[in-house]
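TA notes. Do not distribute before section.
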Amino acid sequence: MLTDKIYLSTVSTSEPEDIFSSSRSLLFTDDITNQHGDNSSTVLYRSSQFGDLKLELADPRGEEARRLFSHYLWNAGVQLAAFIEEIEYEGSGSGSGSSSSSGLGEEKGSGEEKGSGEEKGSGEEKGTGEEKGSGEEKGTGEEKGEEKGEEKGEEKGEEKGEVDWKVRGHSVLELGAGTGLVGIMASLMGAQEVVVTDYPAEEVLANLRVNVDYNCSSSSFSSSSSSSPPPVPPLLPPLLPSPSPPASSASSALKNININVSVQGHSWGQLTDTFSLTHKESFTRVLLADCLWMPWQHGNLLRSIRWFLAREGRAWVVAGFHTGRWDVRGFFEEARVRECGLVVERVWERDVVGNERGWVEDRGVEDRDVVGRKKWLVVGILKRLD
């Protein structure tokens, strides 16, 4: 499960509120944690390649700054970091991707690209890609996209093929970075240059610098990965992920990687400052994790993406539905995206277990289920219109 990658290093407490908070996953087993940590705890991301990445959280000053929620790590950031880290390279082509990064891809039996299903046992094992195990549409390849209820004919994740989450050699910009996890992972995975940005509040930028400095130097990285995981707070379930790799493995993973990562303040849509003017169309990868919950900022966010995105670049967007699907869906509206000089290349949904389905703007009752919708993320890829 996605959330198994995260645990907290906190000061032990006997306060009833803290004990209750740490026990929620036992008391309410269906209620997925979608935000992690606070300014009193350190979040640790369990990396399969680099050991434990240590993330401090900012303490924003003032109510207005706190309403931007940069002082949490959200599941969208965990998922995008996992996509980037877990890609498998095969040759110099588009990349095979791991099973966690299919994007409703070939490995799930697209129907279009697997023919009539004869190659894969009439498709019974793979399904159609969009319906994964629905049990109703097995293997003809003609039933692609046919789903029950409100999903039939409405899903927009039809584009097939695997996603290449490769960042090695790319210039990378992270918008709305929060803890900086995604940009940090991009730098560790070999990006040529990484700039992590968030709104220009000094306490937020200072915290980003702390996280970047700690995780993106081989010396501190080696020592952090060799340490034992912190004890699990009382009443929390046991951690299931594999142990972190030893220091020697983590150090070798960093070998020959030219880490070039910096922190920059940026307000979405404000493009006349020195940084914006000197970096126009400079980034081949623009990364966004959990930046879509403010619908009044969608236009500004799209304008920033288009401004910084290189001609052949891609923007990778992952967002949760914690404030409601209605707050998120406007970002992907075709007219608005095209007005900003962009186009949605692909969009789909993924849950914390790894199940995927096509993107739907309205899922009715499911959208009103606060607990249920926390399990799902929307994943989108944008490119320039020209």
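Switch to the second chain here.
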Amino acid sequence: MITLLETCRIPPPPGSAAAAELQLPLTFFDIVWIHFQPIRRLLFYEYSGSESHFLETLVPKLKESLSLTLKHYLPLAGNLLYPLNTDHQKPLLRYISGDSVSLKIAISGGDFDELVGNHPRDADQFYEFVPEIPPETEDSDYKIVPVFALQVTLFPGRGICIGFSNLHSLGDARSIVGFMRAWASMCKLAGESELSPPIFDKSVIHDPLKIDDTFWKAVKNIPFKPSYSFRLPTNKVRATYTLRQSDIQKLKDSVLAKKPNLVHVSSFVATASYVWTALLKSSADDHVEDRNIHEYFVFSVDIRERMNPAVPTNYFGNCLCAGITEIEHERLVGEEGIAVSAEFMSELIRNRMNNKDEVLKGAENWMDGSRNKVWARAVGVSGSPKFDLCSADFGWGNARKLEVVSIDGERCSISLCKCSDSEGGLEIGLSLPKERMTAFAAVFADGLKS
């Protein structure tokens, strides 16, 4: 159990150069996520300091550096404005003077080492460290919804957990990781950040086809119900699986031996293919009668540098394209399943994701309903090893563990990040019913032995 010590609001610094008001329209990349659940993450850090040092020294430092960082990240202190009349108005992000971020300070008597372990652990126990998005309010024109919330929890003598929740329509992983690293840098360097500030100019997203209007038309009649309370019990356990660099190289070598025409197999492709096929082989519904039923693996790709014209890498917002790998069930659970998956994924990335002329081809049809069949049998990915969230160092070192709590709410989703204790390795986070996790663990381990 945790003891909640304080709930406060942290605004950008008063009298700073922060704008009095900032309004940002949503691009079509943002509108895609308007009805999506918040993204919830936990960073666990080892920290041996006392409760008194935490409260008297660390908490004031965290608050001050958070305020200074928000000066450069105003939308995080602001709100999503969702129109009551969706026929005449569209949603937008707005910051006005006086807006702030909700921050909770807590102390836990829980077992820090249990929480940061890799073994299966009850998923429900993580939710007391996750901040809830504050409730919406309403004016004559809009529902006003906070977009970001924070919680810092001390485990006396053992560690600190920083929990953060954000609406996906606010920004993608690159954006949120950029903020967390900027805050960490500001805290560690006593008010001086080494990182370049973000840009919020939505005009860098070129939309000559007015896809934003098409997407808004597709979703505006869906009831907007920003109920962000946690759905417990999850009836799931969380576990982390590690692929070391040597494991990943073996997977790559195995794929290239079976598919010699492949020029390159990335660590992401090798890992995703291995985990996807292991999930299918260990699934209770592996006895499906139709062995030709199609399975789907869905991953998001940051396409800032892949767009034409390119979008600045420090653009804050969403700039993601979904890669969807579609393969028959029988081929994936067969002996060459990993190689088949890797071939499909590699070709998709090379021919579409890395091709400026193809990456957004047909984007206006993304929300026409044709993808609905995908989600019933899809495995998805949250996060990317490309954005190293665990390197956010507040002054007491890199994070020991990242937990992406929001994958609990998905039918089947994995989290992916750099391995904290193995150079070149990757950590795969899973949230599954206990029996399914046990079956997966066996298949995952056996595959590495062979």
